[in-house]
Amino acid sequence: MNTLLTLVAILQSFSISLGVGSSTLAVTNFFVAIADAKIDETERKMMGIAYVVLRVAMILILTTTVLLLAGTFVRTGYVPFSPFYVAQLVVLFVLFLNAVLMTLRIMPSTFGPAFQAGNWYTLGTLQALFAQSLTNFTYLQFFLSYIAGLVLMVSVINGTMAYLKHQQQKKEV
């Protein structure tokens, strides 16, 4: 059982890394598309590949998280609801909810891509904290840090988009 849970934890770590990397690539592709004000066929294909990889990573993370929680329950008789595990579940919920809202075109582009990137980076951060046994933060510390990280990501992504659009407008004049 321990070996199986260890393998699942490794797969989860790989999946989070895959998601963080492909999210970075998706945002970068988005910036490139904005910079030249058009999405050519190659850019469209690359963006499509990045989105498929993101979906695979999301499915793997959801599956591994459920398996790890179930394995913990089988081993100990309870599901841990420490701030770390709650943080991970909250971030996963927001990641999936935002993906659905973006797919349905309900989430505005001002927030959607930034929330996705922010959630991927939060998952990566949580994984790094777990690896260093730094999971003794409080719920309040997590939620304040999480909100600050999302606000920062919205600012960085929207600031970059505004800058690129401004540069494109200067080229057109």
**What global shape is seen?**
elongated
Overall mean pLDDT stands at 93
- The SS-based structural class is mainly alpha
| Residues in helices, as a percent range | over 70%
Number of domains in the coordinates? 1
Radius of gyration from the CA trace? 18 Å
Uncertain stretches: none
Number of strands: 0
Which range does the strand content fall in?
A: under 5%
Largest sheet: none
Tally of separate helices:
5
Q: Element order, helices and strands?
A: HHHHH
Ends: how far apart?
65 Å
Which SSEs are present, and which pair or pack?
Blueprint: H1 2-35, H2 41-76, H3 83-103, H4 112-131, H5 139-172
Helix pairs in contact: 1-2, 1-4, 1-5, 2-3, 3-4, 4-5
Overview in brief:
The protein is mainly alpha-helical. It has helices at residues 2-35, 41-76, 83-103, 112-131, 139-172.
Spell out the key features of this protein.
173 residues; mainly alpha; elongated
Overview of this protein structure:
With 173 residues, the protein is mostly helical. The protein has one domain. It has helices spanning 2-35, 41-76, 83-103, 112-131, 139-172. α1 runs antiparallel to α4, α1 (2-35) packs parallel to α5 (139-172) and α3 packs antiparallel against α4. The longest helix has 36 residues, at 41-76. It starts with a helix and ends with a helix. The relative contact order is 0.13. The mean pLDDT is 93.
